[in-house]
Amino acid sequence: MPDFPPVPLTLEGSSVLHQFFRFDWKSWRGCAPSERKKIAADAMDVLRALERAAPDAPARTALYSELGHKGDLILVHFRESFEALNQVELDLAQTALYDFLTPTHSYVSVVELGLYESSRKTYEAASAKGFEAHTPEWNAEIANSLARGADAMKPRLFPSVPDAKYLCFYPMDRKRGEQVNWYTVSFAERQRMMHEHGMIGRRYAEQVKQIISGSIGMDDWEWGVDLFADDPVVFKKLIYEMRFDEVSAVYALFGQFYLGVRLPVEKLGAWLEGKL
To answer: Which of 8, 93, 218, 250 is 20 to 30 A from residue 197's alpha carbon, by CA?
Structure first.
């Protein structure tokens, strides 16, 4: 496809914010029990409102107790816009509990579906109609194709937070070095490798829910990966198997990994007393 754009088409959905915090246990223990109780109750009220727009609505915010030294709490938010995510940050900052939280990391991205498989068909269809790349006619054809895809993929583009016990999050890049550069590989080769890569994930589909979010121009890495499962060992098995795959073994760079246990909002008070 030498005359076609090298960039695969993508569909974008929910805006995503990950927040990672360390909790000031020493200051917390210095508060009177009655004060701790009120702070916890007020925080739970705010978190309930953030979690669901209505009692029967899908979960759009989830709280996790973080394992390891990197922090104590993780919050994951899915919203319709970045303005809405910014409002989430402001709402949390108004709580008294926020005075005990120190941000250790954050990640901003947007849910992304990569369309390597259909991009080629879409480009070929536009070319077959006589449209040259990037002309108004070409752009309109591509926009119509994406609109149809977005409608069909709406549940995946605007997901609720999966109801799973464990979360694994990590950012990743594709290599752009002098010797190995993903962005100089032909479209057809990238398509082939991504297809093989995706087949591994499909074998784990019943055990792991995966949500990929794009972050180029939004954060320090190119993509964020969220894995949700009821058995954390499956994270190790899936990621280990994928590292033998060509696209990961040769072209992938990974950031830090974060692991959390789902913390229902109603159990926050117990967590603040040292009980999971």
So the answer is: 218
| Cα–Cα nearest to 100, from 34, 17, 26 | 26
Could you read off the pLDDT of 229-266 as tens digits, one per residue? 999 999 999 999 999 999 999 999 999 999 999 999 99
pTM tops 0.85, yes or no: yes
DSSP state of 100: G
Which stretches of the chain are assigned E, i.e. beta strand?
Answer: 10-23, 61-66, 73-79, 101-114, 166-174, 209-214, 223-229, 252-254, 258-262
List b or e across 101-133, with b for residues whose CB sees 16 or more CB atoms inside 10 angstroms: beebbebbbbbbbbbbebbbebbeebbeeebee
The rounded Cα 39 to chain-centroid distance in angstroms is: 30
Burial 156-179 (b: 16+ CB within 10 A, else e): ebbbebbebebbbbbbbbbeeeee
Query: Are the beta carbons of 21 and 47 closer than 8 angstroms?
Result: no
**Tell me: the pLDDT tens digits for 86-104?**
999 999 999 999 999 999 9
Query: What phi, psi does 29 have (nearest 5°)?
Result: -65, -20
Gap between the Cα atoms of 141 and 125, Å rounded: 9
**Pair of tokens at residue 46:** 């705010």
Give one word for 258, left, alpha or beta, with left for phi > 0 and alpha for psi -120 to 50: beta
CA-based nearest residue to 159, from 61, 18, 20, 266: 61
Identify which has the larger pLDDT, 160 or 4. 160
Q: Which residues on neighbouring strands pair with residue 209, listed in sequence order? A: 228
Q: Which residues are designated catalytic?
A: 170
List, in sequence order, every beta strand (DSSP E) within 82-139. 101-114
User: Hey, what are 122's tokens?
Assistant: 């879409």
